[in-house]
Write a structure and sequence with these properties.
Largest sheet: 5 strands, parallel
Helix content: 25-40%
Distance between the termini: 33 Å
CATH class of the largest domain: Mainly Alpha
Shape: elongated
Strand order of the largest sheet: 2-1-3-4-5
CATH topology of the largest domain: Arc Repressor Mutant, subunit A
Radius of gyration: 19 Å
Strand content: 15-25%
């Protein structure tokens, strides 16, 4: 899980990054300029689950307003040095989702982020069950027919995004952005097809029915659901087109 981190104090930042990496989060350190940049890119499906963690700064309220003014619904968590009800209230009123008081443990951050994300996708509970598969939103591997299905880190990230959008089609570009979008070295997005095949095989092998639960909706993307859910989705579902830059890459690759 990617998370943007703004903490101007180097000592605190290093300790925070270690905490985040310890719970398998992928922190991306940002500077003040981040909040003055084009934040609308975070509105893309796959990028909207990246939390933004903001430390103490005189410009805290401005940063929160900039994020929300860009239409971003990303989880925004504020880190305070001391408990202060008035300051916490102001941050929440500006659009922050949560306020935490240092020192902060990584396990608490990831739990709070997961809680915000699942509610934003309409999941009140910690899990969603689709047929024989139970997907958890707290970092645990899914269960199939009551047994844990062990997934690699990449498989888990892709499956998590499918589960958040259970019974809805999600484009391959959105999955790619959620898993690889901020990597310095991005693989060609055919890698998503490879991981989808691995997930299908694992789920189908573990399921008593043999059903693989991840459907390819040609020309649109993938859907995590049961065979009975084929007509349950809104035809105008939550589909995100591939960004133009990526389209150009695909076109060039196809001609090669």
């Amino acid at each position: 899980m990617y998370i943007y981190v703004f903490e101007p104090r180097a000592g605190r930042r290093d300790a925070l990054l270690a905490e985040l990496r310890g719970v398998r989060m992928s922190p991306i350190v940002v500077e003040e300029a981040f909040f003055a940049s084009d934040l609308s890119i975070l509105n893309r499906k796959g990028s909207d689950t990246r939390a933004i963690l903001i430390g103490e700064t005189p410009h805290l309220a401005e940063h929160i307003r900039a994020i929300r003014a860009a239409g971003c619904r990303n989880p925004v968590l504020v880190m305070r040095d001391f408990k202060n009800s008035r300051d916490a209230s102001e941050s929440l009123n500006q659009g922050a989702d949560d306020v935490m008081v240092s020192p902060i443990k990584g396990i608490e951050i990831i739990s709070r982020v997961n809680s915000i994300i699942r509610r934003s996708y309409g999941h009140a509970a910690e899990s969603v069950t689709v047929g024989e598969v139970t997907a958890y939103f707290d970092g645990r591997d899914p269960q199939v027919c009551g047994e844990r299905l062990r997934l690699s880190r990449r498989e888990h990230a892709i499956f998590q995004h499918l589960a958040l959008n259970a019974n809805r089609v999600i484009s391959k570009a959105a999955i790619y952005d959620a898993v690889y979008g901020m990597d310095d070295t991005q693989p060609f997005d055919k890698v998503i097809d490879v991981y989808i095949c691995k997930l299908r095989k694992k789920i189908g092998t573990a399921a008593d029915s043999g059903h693989q639960y991840i459907e390819t909706v040609y020309g649109r993307g993938y859907k995590f659901g049961t065979a009975d859910d084929d007509h349950a989705e809104d035809p105008a579902g939550d589909i995100v087109e591939m960004p133009r830059g990526r389209q150009a890459e695909h076109a060039a690759s196809a001609r090669a």
